[in-house]
Amino acid sequence: MVKDQAMSVVFDGSPLKAMQSSHTHSPRTALSTQELSQEIKSFISGVDTVQGRKLSVREHARCAVRLLRSVPACRGAVLEHLRGVYDEHVSAFLHNLETEGDANSVVSSNLEDIIQEVHGVLSEFIRLNPRAWAPLVSTWAVDLLGQLSSKHAGRRVAPHSSSLNELLQLWMSCAATRSLMEAYSLCLAAMLAWCPDACVDALLDTSVQHSPHFDWVVAHIGSAFPGTIISRVLACGLKDFCSHGTKDQGLMVMGGDKGNRVPKIGSVVGILGHLAAHHSDSIRRELLRMFQESLNPSGPLSPTSSSTSWESSPQLRRAAVPFLLQLAAMSPNLFGAVSAELVELLRPPVLLQLQALLQGLPREELDNMLGLAVHLISQSPSGGARVLRFLADTATPASVIISGPTPSPHEGVREGCDRLLQMLLLHLHKLVFNRSDGTEGNPFHSASSQPQRVTPFLEELQSHVGELCAETLRLERKRHLWLHQLLCLLSVYGGPSVATEAFCQLLTQARNPEELALAWQLHTTLSSCMAGLIPAAVARCVAQIHTHTLGPRQLRQLLLNLAAAIQSQDEERRGSVGAQSSMAIQVGSAVSGHLHDFGPLLLHGDPAVSHATVRLLSCSPLPRTSSPAHLLLLSRAAVTHFFLALRRRGEGGKMGRDGGQAGEAVNCSVQLLSRFAAYSPLTLKAVLQQLVEGALHKGNADLFGGQIADMSGAPLASPSVSPDLGASLLDVNCRFGTTVNFSGSVWSVFHAGVIGKGLKIRTATQLLDSSSVIQNVQTLLAVVVQCCSSSGLNGSINGSRLPSDPDEPPPINAEAAKVVAVTLVENVCPDVANGELSWPPEEHARTTVERDIHIRRCFEAHPVLFPLLQVVAAGRPALCYCSAVLRGLLATLLAHWEASREISSTDSPWHLQASCLLVSCMGEGQLLPPVLANVHEAFPLLTPFEVRLLLLAVWEYVRGNGPMPQKFVFSSEKGLFCRDFSRDGDVARYVAPIHSVLHKNIDRLGHLCWRFQL
Amino acid sequence: MGDIRQSLLPRDVLSAAKELLYHLDIYICNLVQSGRQPPQVDSKTLELVEEFILHAPKDRNTPGRRMSALQELQLLEIMCSCFQEQSRDTVRQLMFSALFSLQGNQADESRMALLGKLVSMAIAVGRIPILECAATWLQRTHCVYCVRLAQVLVDDYCSMVPGSVPTLQNIHSASPRFCCQFITAVTTLYDLTSEELTPPLELLQMIVSWIQDDPRLVLITFLNTPLSGSQPISSLDVTPLGGLMRWCVKAPLAYRRDKKQVLTNGSTENEPDTGPLFSALHLSVLQVFMLLPNILNEKGLFGRLALLQMESLAALTSDLSRLLDQADKHTHTSSTDTHALSQLTLDRLAQALQVAMANGALLCSREDLRAICSRLPHNNLLQLVLSGPVMYYNNIHTPPLAFSPHAAHSPIASHPTHPAHTPHTPHTPLTNHPSSHPQYPGQPFMTGMPFPFRPSH
């Protein structure tokens, strides 16, 4: 009830005013001197001297007010007495609140009217003569407010001093404190006109005295007079700061010595801190204004700043900057408010002014300020990046080459900034490395357990690691040294995550070896205190790849950098020993752990990326263990990339540009494949299989001179006219749900063309020129041979054998050759019927005519088959597994030669070549004894029929001596499987037709006779 | 007396002070009774006063105890009654001077503060003995402190407590001596050089009404003081005449300045015009001058004692010339108004000079005057006064030029010192004198006075 009433008073304030006016007009009878004397006696003794009874509190207070009005000398005593009255009222008020206002509400209301009476008198006085009364009453009111607030702070109903709003609510609902507050506001309003500093001084003093409990007063006054209070408070603080000298400041910051040496600055900070909640803008404005005006050269006084006088004193102006620094050091809030805009303000002219101002200070003081500034920067929670950029920009020496974002500052300013930056780095270094004292012996622990001191500057910069790295990598003069040092500190501070991030960024952004070296430097610094940095960084890079956060260029750069890192290992091995070696090994092992993640990048749409990937993969070591799925995927990707690289090389050769790169890509791809094949039997098999399949694939056939049989008979369209029919099965399917349009829909689209639109236009196949075909074939063969002869299987089978002659190429591995053979058979001869190895009689070939024709077409379409067969043949006894293919080809050749009515075998060149190659292959594969194998040398000189005779002899031999792998025996001295033909039946039986043919054509074949001796 | 210190030390502040007062009373009574001449309070006692009443810090280590404002009020009340109850004038005076005569030490500040409060309170509750003592104090003390006391009283009664002017007004009837000294102090304080040093309107009204009621008021100190050479150096003037004359002469210029400021401030407060007040005051001052010959003759001092000092006059004229220069420079708009005011100023100066010289208040030759007034702008009346035939005093028997005008401190052997007047009948010899004519217009006194030179128109 009482509270309600009080609240209403708070919010409209009218009752007070009503009381005042009623009292101002109350009849004042001038008292006689005797009466006054009596009155004074009564007041002093508290007893009514006329009636001899004790005065009540209320009467006593009335008496006091009367004296206040009539006897000036009693002023002090009356005000002192009124303190008691106010105190009493506050006590009653609080008591009332505590007892829920049941009993003694009368007391408080009684006193309340007295308080309003007093308030009326005081405000009347203040209004009539503010000069005389305002200082007096304001001091009294502030002091009393402070006393009351701290005295009753411990009461049950009083909220804790930190909840400012509740506190304000409580005190403003109490008539006594509210009246005091209003009186003070009145005084302040009056005094601001002529002595603003005095009233704020009193406020500050009281605030210091009753520190937390008095805050609500300051907050209230501050929000009532924000503009003036803020600037006055600042001016007061500055004056006080200046008069106390600046000697203690360094001590205060470093040691945190919060003695009463500089009492006011503390309360300045407190007050501004309160006001910051609602008036941060004006606070910021005032602070910045103070800064700017302190810099203005001491010219004529600006007429606008007449109210504040500190600008006029050079001493104060010089103290302004240290003062602001001190202020900022003591209040993070204030600092945060100013720091952001301060940096913007520091343009070259301002810097020059600042330098001019600070030059006058003694060195010791400058050092203090510098230390303070460094401390502040390291503690600044936001804007650190901007500050850093500013410092670096300003401190970077002016250069003709590099034009910074700002015009080059004065040399003195630059040196100052340089020094500041150095000190900042030093300070941060101390902070970072000293923050956990206990764990110096065990640096690995420092990141985890110890509760650490937070350095806000570094905290904030953690999110700018990327930019820092980019800046560092620009390698500008001194700047990159600073930034690199900062990166190190940041990494140590932020622990593994930040270090990883930084390292990762450097790896991604470095563009050349010099820049990459920065990454190694970082690692060298950090490696002492951080384990597992490189694996983590690589893992992070991989994560970036997965999330597609990197653009193609960055991705490429990253991959190249990793590759370079690994390759440096090889160089190390060869030459000098350096710190990088271990790191290169670490990178290698880390990358090898993520090979399957890099694999898909081989097929990246950007050739540069895929090239970089292959470079990386080709040089990275392979993991010890890896899951088959990964291996298969990798091998598939690698093989696919191989063909892509071949195609690009072809195209690149035409372009003339990128040719070298494409060639290198092919080389890398070859290397990758061979190394990969050597990794394990599984990979070997997969690689070979896919290589062969890929070589025979329709899309790749043209690389190796193959021609896809075109089924359509449509004429080749001229390249200029390529009408787009607009028919797309995909489109039709997409539309299928929405429209039902069967004319020209899915049903009318065939592989041969759209019904009604004629045959599908033949795409012009661009035939490669023979030289590149040859090159491609050679490359493919080289890969296959390398794969087949690599140590993967050799090790398991004939690992004991040392390469006796380094010039001699390593032998083709039988198992690998078998893989190729099987794959060939699967691709060339899809029909598995009659797939057994042993050959039937020649007549039986007519049962498999269709299949044989298919096989022959295959050979026609893929010239690369013959070289592959030769590879297989070299890996004896693998050719046995190609038996079906050989048989089919031979059957068709026999049929051809039989039907041929040409004069010479050279008239059917393809068949002649095929026959020669086939026989030589079989000879190489030791399906034929040397006598028979040599027959192909005679083929070009013979007639088709004679060729058929000879081929028939071959058939007969093979039919008689089946191509069985078990007939081959491993000869350890050669390191090869060999077939002992002596165990087979007599060769002479099959040689007879050869000799007949020789005899017949002895004139032309004489020089070959020795080839057919048994 | 020194031995009571130990007994006072453990007491609380107020009772120690009370007890000391009590002992002081007894001690001084004994001193007076012992008949030693002159009665002198010893330094130990003064130290006790400083320690226990004024609470001056005795040394740096022990912080001085302080009274609360309430205790101080009680002490003041006790002092009031103490002085009131002491019947013997000598004892009172001795006690007052023991308490409040300045010693030139640290305690003087608190002494002044306490004195201010005591006098202020005595005015409020009408303690005449205290006012009489204060009047004596004002006569003996350096004028700087007198001015401070006056300032306290003016602040208290004219600015701080709005309704209390009548109380101050009463001192005229309560203690004319004090009132006279107060006027002297106030006129010394407010020399109209700046806004702060312009007397508040209430004060002005009060003083004018006092002097109008009884012009001889301003002479009371002079009448009651034995000119025995005991006048301390740089104390207040014996009469406020010089100060009052300064007020009247400078007022037109000073208040014109104020008015201008008010106008520029945009304040719409229309204060009652001070012009008539100063006119009346000027008249009163002139009337007082005219009272002088009789009094001086009575005392045998005519032509020997200059109540207006030449130095202060010189200061006034140089001030005036500066002000008039400024007025000429700064006002271009209302030049007629300015001119009128300047002329009024110079008129008043001329009148005052003439009357003062004629009545023996100012002892100098016209050459001296011309030198002093040489820089002032032209004014007919002043011209007349300055250029008139060398006129000696009416009573030609006194050689004027041989006598130094600054002879106030020289003992005049031919006149025995006056016996001490009783405070209540200070000016009984003058009561039947035709005192004042407040209803008169400004001019008539001109006709009554001897005016040896008239303009030739």
UniProtKB/TrEMBL annotation, chain A:
SUPFAM superfamilies: ARM repeat. GO terms for cellular component: integrator complex. It comes from the Eukaryota. Residues 34-242 form the Integrator complex subunit 5 N-terminal domain. InterPro entries: ARM-type_fold, INTS5, INTS5_C, INTS5_N. Pfam families: INTS5_C, INTS5_N. This is Integrator complex subunit 5. The lineage of its organism: Eukaryota, Metazoa, Chordata, Craniata, Vertebrata.
TrEMBL record, chain B:
InterPro entries: INTS15 (IPR027844). Residues 407-438 have a biased composition (Low complexity). Residues 407-447 are annotated as: Disordered. Pfam families: INTS15. This is Uncharacterized protein. It comes from Echeneis naucrates. The gene is ints15.
